[in-house]
């Protein structure tokens, strides 16, 4: 199946089964804004719990915070967002559509990568087990030609972005014949800067209102509370502050479903360290965060690091954790060495001393910061993209059938178990309800009595429920039930009293945490 078709199916599945809905859909929606449905909100909360507990429970020197969305406007002047939080914008005069110039060029780079991957896939099929991919990459003329084009464009693009040369960004688009996806033409405007912050007014009257911003990131709430947390928690360097919260960016091009939205949620942790030790901690957090992603079991080859060519104004090192989505490798999480830029800026603009006295070296300093920043919505999309699976199975009368199953890690699954009475009589519904009553305090349970057992299994597969419990007439006699496992479709007879341990062993977050080392 073409990856584009797979992505369309995934989006349709998310809506059909209550994961994600277009916001305000009865009014034809609002561009790049989405709502999470009854199963989506559970999955999203489980992802957040996995992140939060891995940060705050597993690290005794990392604590939590929940700062306000509205902040004093000087915050954003100090952080550089007022002057530097811009994207290069370009319009196509024929289609009247607006694009990010850097994204258009990145898409062109991705086309070269796709051509290389296509050549490699063809060769794999042709040569089978004897295929030497490394040698093929070094010797195949078509691969080398596309690699040369990629390197040439990448080098020029990186230079233009680092220098923010808007004239050359447009020239790159022209030179490489990059056309508008809608009109198919190269009738472009000049590239110009576009600030991404949403502005609003705070105050009871128009005359007395002051201009404030919806925060474009959650990190600044951590930085302005650094002293509060450090002093009240008696925190010693190194230590971290973790936060989950909403952020808002007026994206020029919000696309690819929930990958890029104007209202989104972030999970960020700022780790405060002694100056000079930041690169050591940067490498440690790189390894820790990649381990966190891979613990979910979605094939290690789907993850990679991407080193930043253009560093943000506050950073001296930056890397992204990228996942192979149906639309290619894209960023899920960023790990940055932010130096002492943020705290120093807030110290200067506020006039308040923001320093740490280090008793080990008998010296005061402004700490350096290592940041890990992950988008909840992107992580959600990564999880459902990896979990979505279409399988051919044996159907009725020996005919082939297809089932759609979300192979979610059990700890993240929205519903942990569904209890199903075989029929809606003979006391089976009451017995099923009684089982739920014993388990609902620990697990998110569901009761389902509509349609045949087969259809009910398919429905639960589609939302990723790990366990289906069937109550039948034998249950009334001996207190045993049939447990059906989602991924293998295996069924076994177990005592009702064993259910709690069977389910708990599989859905516990401990299984994920133990993989983190």
From TrEMBL:
EC number, as in UniProt: 6.1.1.14
SUPFAM superfamilies: Class II aaRS ABD-related, Class II aaRS and biotin synthetases
Keywords: Aminoacyl-tRNA synthetase, ATP-binding, Cytoplasm, Ligase, Nucleotide-binding, Protein biosynthesis
Reaction catalysis annotation: tRNA(Gly) + glycine + ATP = glycyl-tRNA(Gly) + AMP + diphosphate
Positions contributing to substrate binding: 100, 217, 264-268, 371-375
Domain Aminoacyl-transfer RNA synthetases class-II family profile: 152-414
Protein residues bound to ATP: 249-251, 259-264, 331-332, 375-378
Classification via Gene3D superfamilies: 3.30.40.230, Anticodon-binding domain (3.40.50.800), Bira Bifunctional Protein, Domain 2 (3.30.930.10)
Subcellular location per the Swiss-Prot or TrEMBL entry: Cytoplasm
Domain of life: Bacteria
GO CC annotations on file: cytoplasm; extracellular exosome; microvesicle
Membrane-spanning parts: none
Cross-referenced InterPro entries: aa-tRNA-synt_IIb, aa-tRNA-synth_II, aa-tRNA-synth_II/BPL/LPL, Anticodon-bd, Anticodon-bd_dom_sf, Gly-tRNA_synthase/POLG2, Gly_tRNA_ligase_bac, GlyRS-like_core
Annotated GO MF terms: ATP binding; bis(5'-nucleosyl)-tetraphosphatase (asymmetrical) activity; glycine-tRNA ligase activity
GO BP annotations, alphabetical order: diadenosine tetraphosphate biosynthetic process; glycyl-tRNA aminoacylation
Assigned protein family: Belongs to the class-II aminoacyl-tRNA synthetase family.
Subunit architecture: Homodimer.
The protein's role, per its UniProt record: Catalyzes the attachment of glycine to tRNA(Gly).
Official protein name in the record: Glycine--tRNA ligase
């Amino acid at each position: 199946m073409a990856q584009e078709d797979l992505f369309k199916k995934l989006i349709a599945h998310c809506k059909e089964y209550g994961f994600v809905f277009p916001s305000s859909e009865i009014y034809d929606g609002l561009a790049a804004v989405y709502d999470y449905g009854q199963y989506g909100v559970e999955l999203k909360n489980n992802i957040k719990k996995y992140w939060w507990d891995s940060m705050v429970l597993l690290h005794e020197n990392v604590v939590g915070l929940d700062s306000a969305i509205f902040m004093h406007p000087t915050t954003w002047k100090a952080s550089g967002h007022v002057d530097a939080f811009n994207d290069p914008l370009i319009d196509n005069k024929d289609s009247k559509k607006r694009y990010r110039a850097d994204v258009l060029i990145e898409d062109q780079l991705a086309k070269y990568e796709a051509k290389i991957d296509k050549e490699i896939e063809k060769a794999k099929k042709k040569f089978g087990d004897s295929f030497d991919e490394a040698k093929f990459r070094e010797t195949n003329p078509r691969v080398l030609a596309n690699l040369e084009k990629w390197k040439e464009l990448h080098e020029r693009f990186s230079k233009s972005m680092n220098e923010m040369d808007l004239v050359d960004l447009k020239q790159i688009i022209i030179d490489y014949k990059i056309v508008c996806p809608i009109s198919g033409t190269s009738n472009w405007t000049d590239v110009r800067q576009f600030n991404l912050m949403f502005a609003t007014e705070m105050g009871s009257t128009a005359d007395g209102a002051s201009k404030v911003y919806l925060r474009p990131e959650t990190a600044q709430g951590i930085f302005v509370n650094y002293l509060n947390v450090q002093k009240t928690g008696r925190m010693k360097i190194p230590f971290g502050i973790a936060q989950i919260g909403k952020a808002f960016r007026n994206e020029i091009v919000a696309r690819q479903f929930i990958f890029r939205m104007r209202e989104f949620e972030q999970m960020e942790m700022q780790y405060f360290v002694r100056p000079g030790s930041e690169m050591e901690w940067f490498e440690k957090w790189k390894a820790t965060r990649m381990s966190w992603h891979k613990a979910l079991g979605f094939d290690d080859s789907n993850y990679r690091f991407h080193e930043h060519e253009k560093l943000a104004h506050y950073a001296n090192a930056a890397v992204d954790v990228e996942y192979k989505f149906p639309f290619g490798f894209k960023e899920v999480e960023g790990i940055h060495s932010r130096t002492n830029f943020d705290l120093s800026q807030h110290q200067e603009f506020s006039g308040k001393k923001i320093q740490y006295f280090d008793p080990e070296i008998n010296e005061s300093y402004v700490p350096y910061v290592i940041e890990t920043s992950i988008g909840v919505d992107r992580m959600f999309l990564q999880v459902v993209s990896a979990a979505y699976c279409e399988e051919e199975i044996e159907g009725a009368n020996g005919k082939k059938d297809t089932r759609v199953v979300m192979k979610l890690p059990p700890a993240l699954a929205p519903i942990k178990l569904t209890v199903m009475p075989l029929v809606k009589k003979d006391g089976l519904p009451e017995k099923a309800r009684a089982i739920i009553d014993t388990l609902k305090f620990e697990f998110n349970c569901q009761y389902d009595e509509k349609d045949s057992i087969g259809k009910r299994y398919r429905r639960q597969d589609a939302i990723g429920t790990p366990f289906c419990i069937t109550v039948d007439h034998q249950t009334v006699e001996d207190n045993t039930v049939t447990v059906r496992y989602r991924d293998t479709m295996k069924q076994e007879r177990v005592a009702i009293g064993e259910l709690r341990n069977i389910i708990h062993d599989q859905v516990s977050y401990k299984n994920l945490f133990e993989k983190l080392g």
